[in-house]
Write a structure and sequence with these properties.
The protein has two helices and five strands. The chain is an alpha+beta fold and about 110 residues long.
Length: about 110
C-alpha cells in the first residue's frame, strides 16, 4: 500500500495563486473591468470627445463619452448654466459610438 502525501499549506496556496487571473481578482474585490489598450476591437477607442449644445442655455460644450462604461446614459452639469443634462449613448455591436443624444433633466 502506497501512502499518499497530503499537500502542505504552502503547496495549496501556490496552486490557488496559479489559478488567479484578472477577472477572478476583479470579482473577488467587486471591481469593474478595466479597458486594456489593444484588447478591444480594432479602431475602437475607450473614449471620445463630442461637441453638443446644452438643451437649457444653448451653449456649445464638449463632453467626454466613456465607451467602456456599461451604462447607456449618464448625467453631467452644463459648464455654463450648471443645469443637469442627461446624455444617452448609442453604440454599434463593436462598441463604437453611433450617436449621443442630450436632453434636459427636470
Amino acid at each position: 500500500m502506497v501512502k499518499r502525501r497530503t499537500p502542505s499549506e504552502l503547496e495549496r496556496l501556490r496552486r490557488r495563486i496559479s489559478r488567479v487571473d484578472g477577472q477572478s481578482i476583479d470579482e473577488l474585490y467587486g471591481l469593474e473591468p478595466v479597458w486594456e489598450p489593444g484588447t478591444g476591437p480594432l479602431g475602437a477607442a475607450p473614449e471620445e470627445f463630442v461637441a453638443v449644445r446644452c438643451p437649457w442655455c444653448g451653449e456649445r460644450l464638449e463632453t467626454r463619452v466613456d465607451l467602456t462604461a456599461d451604462e447607456p446614459a449618464y448625467v453631467e452639469d452644463c459648464e455654463v448654466c450648471c443645469r443637469p443634462i442627461e446624455f444617452q449613448i448609442e453604440r454599434d455591436a463593436a462598441g463604437a459610438l453611433v450617436a449621443l443624444q442630450v436632453r434636459r433633466l427636470d
